[in-house]
Amino acid sequence: MSEPHKDMVRRDNDYKRITDLMKTGESICLVAKRGVGKSRFLRYLSTEELLKKQHINNSICIYYLDLRSFVSTTNPYLISKLCELFEVPEGEQPLTKKIKELINLGKKVYVILDHFECLNNFENSSIEYLRFLRDSNKGSMGYIASYPDDYVPDAKVEPIKTICMIKHELKPMNQEEMTATVKDIAKRLDYKISKQQIDGVIKLSDGIARNAKYLVSQLMTGVEDLQLPEYVATTNIPEEK
Question: So what CATH class is 12-169?
């Protein structure tokens, strides 16, 4: 059995739901509480490993864009980033041509817009360009936009909701998913974890992988009385790259 991808999250039902929607060309809003693991989920979604597992590696192309890297929300800048992502010369025409070429090869094209909440004052022209790309390739191009639903004002994410009409909530992991995730974390960190320790980590993690990683790292330092500071499940704990 091959090693799991480092960004893999044990969420088979969620992956199946999302990939089933992608097969139909739907655009999706992926929401979750902070720390649940949206970015990790989406990074793995965009890997060849996951596409093969879902038997869609020959029919769907996925491009991942982390919007935390944006320093501007103007339409020319968005087009520039998309051209960079698709590896084409800068400009609407080369980008549109590349997407058409992929579709003509029988592919569906998806762009993941992770951390959509990071875009302040998103220009209408940018949204309209995203809409144009999708509508001119109806059923063959879509988006997956993610944002946390527990602290972002509606006004910041309202624009993308007009394009990504289907909402999927990534909920905290259940017992089985957390058990597998804690074992994966310990293995990646080269830490031999006992069943009792796994149970303790799961009990405190509240179904959130980021919390589990923090607690396992505490175990590695010799801490026996595990506890989470109040800030652990917030943006103060950096996500693993």
Answer: alpha beta
